[in-house]
Amino acid sequence: MTDKPAFVYVIYIERTPEKVWHALTDADLTAEYWGHSNVSDWQVGSPWEHQRTDGSGTADVVGTVVESSPPTRLVTTWAAPDADAAAEPSRVTFDIQPHGDIVRLTVTHENLADEAERTAAAGGWAAALSNLKSLIETGSPLPQQPWLIPQ
């Protein structure tokens, strides 16, 4: 077990596990609520990229799919594209648990470099997941990008 910081975020969404899975793994949907397209075939061992939506194809985050169990669990590594290859990437786990007509989505981002990275992750995940919830419950993301609100 690592002693590096981790961040856990839980959100409840009025949708099925399949809809939440689709929102996490569909490049067009992630572009709507995250401002980046998550691009992969989501098979274990496959690469994934968090690509800008400006048409540049630039990936701001890259990783590998570690576990893919639709529609309940997705685990990926998470690193900057220019990260030192010898450095261990952080890891993000999406656990999707159904309960009646809702889903509890738990996102665990672990093996973060330090408390500053943990703080950044906390703000980023809260914004992205709030926008995801709004999009899949109402059909529209929030009217402003929540990650642009000053801390």
Automatic annotation (TrEMBL):
InterPro entries: ASHA1/2-like_C (IPR013538). It holds the Pfam family AHSA1. Residues 16-137 form the Activator of Hsp90 ATPase homologue 1/2-like C-terminal domain. CDD domains: SRPBCC_CalC_Aha1-like_GntR-HTH. It comes from the Bacteria. This is SRPBCC family protein. It comes from Streptomyces niphimycinicus.
